[in-house]
Amino acid sequence: MEIAVLGCWAPYPKAGGACSGYLLRGGGLNIMLEAGNGSLSRLREFMDFRLLDGVIISHLHHDHYLDLYPLRHGLEGARREGGRAEPLRLVAPSLPEAPYQELAGFKEAYEVTAIEALPEVTLASGLQARKLTWGSLTFHFVKAKHPIPTYSIAVEARGRFVFSSDTARTEEILRLATDADLFLCEASGLDSDAERMRESHLTARQAGEISLQAGVKRLLLTHIWPEYDPEVLCRQAAEGFGKQVQWAREREVYKIRA
User: Fold this and answer.
1) Would you tell me how many other CB atoms lie within 10 Å of the CB of residue 35?
2) Assuming Cys at both sites, which of 149, 166, 222, 230 could form a disulfide with 248, CB separation 3.0 to 4.6 Å?
């Protein structure tokens, strides 16, 4: 597997940047993970959007899904013009109800599956998760701690990739990240932000500390406040992790190997 970074900023982008968006490639599949504003334009630098196999959205906050609206128009046009035969598979939380129902109504563009409708399983760690098998890839969705329903996501094939999404520090994200080959983790704040964000987001240092406890092989920071210097975040995360940390640079591709 590999992950291409389409956007890493939140909740708004730097000039020329994009909000949360990633292209997950593995097992012959091309799956867009998150679709924050600006991510569709960046996706088109990597591939023809008409050839996507699906989109997964961790939660319905605007900086994670807004580009589903322009993508909808592209897909509808492709279907009219013969560039795509079927709606694109879209997997997302069913709440908040209003945006979910709106997306589900774009039937020419999307075939929508609610994460909550996926089979529930108990992982070896004891975590309750929703499971999705997609070709040779296995996805597990575990509830995160955030103001609206949000899911952290683990993907397994030839390697283990874990995406924190937006979450406060919890036992669940620690257990889900255990032994990840690549942990793409939000780092929304500096040490000075810890108290303000304690119910909804992680600081860079907390991302590092979780990675150390979980035995993560590589930590990649994302969901970065655009007024912060990512290198400062990396240094604070590295102090918690005990080894080098990178941030998710846009247009970069990161291999996921066991």
Assistant:
1) 30
2) 222
- DSSP-derived letter for residue 202 is -
Containing 250, the helix (H) or strand (E) segment is: none
Distance from the Cα of residue 113 to its chain's centroid: 17
Q: What are phi and psi of 254, to 5 degrees?
A: -120, 125
pTM: 0.97
Distance CA 135, CA 25 (A): 12
Question: pLDDT tens-digit profile of 111-142?
Answer: 999 999 999 999 999 999 999 999 999 999 99
What is the Cα–Cα distance from 93 to 79, expressed in whole angstroms? 25
Among candidates 68, 32, 65, which has minimal Cα distance to 48?
A: 32
**If you search the block for the tokens 């708004």, which residue do you land on?**
12
| Bridge pairing between strands 120-122 and 253-255 | unpaired
- Domain boundary at 77, 99, 117, which? 117
Task: Residue 82: give the domain boundaries.
Answer: 1-117
Residues 25 and 101 in one domain: yes
Q: How many helices (H) and strands (E) does the chain have?
A: 8, 15
Q: What are residue 61's phi and psi, to 5 degrees?
A: -95, 145
- Residues 84, 19, 166: CA angle, nearest 5 degrees: 105
Name beta bridge partners: 31: 24, 54
In whole angstroms, give the CA distance from residue 240 to residue 215: 12
Q: Are strands 29-35 and 21-26 parallel, antiparallel or unpaired?
A: antiparallel
